[in-house]
Design a protein that fits this description.
Layout (H helix, E strand, L loop, with lengths): L1 H13 L3 E4 L2 H8 L7 E5 L3 E5 L4 H7 L4 E4 L3 H12 L3 E5 L5 H10 L3 E5 L2 H6 L4 H21 L9 H14 L4 E2 L4 E4 L20 E6 L1 E3 L2 E2 L2 E7 L4 H20 L6 H14 L11 E3 L6 E5 L12 E4 L2 E4 L3 E4 L2 E6 L2 E4 L8 E3 L1
Parallel strand pairs: 1-5, 3-4, 5-6, 12-20
Antiparallel strand pairs: 1-2, 2-3, 7-10, 8-9, 9-12, 10-11, 13-14, 15-18, 16-17, 18-19
Helix pairs in contact: 7-8, 9-10
């Protein structure tokens, strides 16, 4: 498997004998194991999953190419493997292992530990065809659910009622779960980028921001649309059209060879030129996959060069305290000659009468 080969190359470069994976998302990415407990052991000649009785049969089914190491005590199992393979050095995920855990290992295990970061996350940045298909399907489910939700929106509905209906529609359309708890934010609440839906009633004059995503086979989608309750006023149209212009302009620039910072600057400059720069305070976008927020990022500081197979969101926003906010977000696949937009919902302003 190419992923394991790449990890072994990193081991050689680090001068370590074993890579020990504890991050459950990375564990799933490398092995296919979806259980909630276990460690992954990768050496030059061995690839094993260490887990307990609850998951023996699951590992056999999901990971036929992996050795199952049955454990009752993780430390004892690790020590046995260290002795069997004459291990001198183990690379571990320092951004996931706790201080207490590493101190316990160092105290009880006769081996040197080297903290590393990002080995698996870097592999996850470029998606396989299977991963792309899962994310594409998740995006289609989100599009379908939102299309069914729109005709049901009305003044008098609460944010939480709209959020629950959106969740129901995504699950009914085939989602195994949600990428995150949906954001439904109306009126002044829509000026909070990560507002939580509450009992506020959708009212005439409100922008309503919907930010949501579905999960298919473990892979996430993410999209945002903003609608308006009642006829738009001039300020509504100005803000909405500005965000839409920034979003479309940045999206059209997504291509291999560009950096996240370059794409971010396109949207940021458009919003800034109209005097609304201070009201666009987050990055333009992020990648996703098994997690809804992954690298690379479209931000002022990310110099990662986009490559075919990467998937990013493009989601500028303008948030005016006391008035409301607008965010528009699409999922975009970087291709050999440009990009492919995975989100299909229209972006013209939808007015709820």
């Amino acid at each position: 498997m190419e992923r394991i080969t790449r990890i072994r190359e990193r081991l050689d470069g680090e001068g370590a004998d074993v890579f020990l994976v504890s991050n459950p998302v990375n564990r799933r990415y490398l092995t296919g194991f979806t259980g909630s407990a276990g460690l992954v052991w990768i050496s030059s000649t061995r690839q094993a999953i260490l887990t307990d009785f609850r998951y023996f049969e699951q590992v056999k089914t999901q990971c036929p190419d992996w050795e199952l190491v049955r454990i009752e005590n993780y430390t004892d199992a690790l020590q046995a493997l260290i002795e069997e393979e004459h291990v001198q050095s183990i690379a571990f995920e320092k951004d996931h292992v706790t201080v207490e855990q590493i101190e316990g290992w160092q105290e009880k295990l006769s081996v040197q530990f080297r903290g590393i970061s990002g080995w698996v996350q870097e592999l996850r940045m470029i998606k396989t065809e299977e991963e792309i298909a899962n994310i594409r399907k998740a995006a289609q489910i989100a599009d379908e659910a939102f299309a069914q939700l729109l005709p049901t929106l009305r003044s008098g509905l609460t944010e939480i009622e709209a959020a629950l209906e959106l969740e129901f529609l995504m699950r009914k359309a085939g989602a195994s779960g949600l990428s995150f708890d949906p954001i439904v934010a109306s009126g002044p609440q829509s000026a909070l980028p990560h507002a939580r839906p509450g009992e506020r009633v959708l009212s005439v004059g409100d922008f309503v921001v919907f930010d949501f995503g579905a999960i298919v086979n473990g892979y996430c989608s993410d999209m945002t649309r903003t609608v308006l309750i009642g006829e738009p006023e001039e300020k509504h149209l100005l803000i909405y059209d500005l965000v839409l212009k920034a979003q479309v302009s940045a999206l059209q620039a997504v291509a291999p060879g560009k950096t996240g910072a370059e794409i971010d600057a396109i949207a940021r400059d458009i919003i800034g030129e109209m005097g609304y720069g201070p009201y666009f305070g987050h990055g333009l976008g992020h990648s996703l996959g098994l997690e809804v927020h992954e690298n690379p990022r479209l931000s002022k500081t990310d110099q990662t060069i986009l490559e075919p197979g990467m998937i990013v969101t493009v989601e500028p926003g303008v948030y005016l305290p006391g008035f409301g906010g607008v965010r528009i977000e699409d999922l975009v696949l970087v291709t050999e000659d440009g990009h492919d937009v995975l989100t299909s919902t229209f972006k013209e302003l939808y007015v709820v009468e």
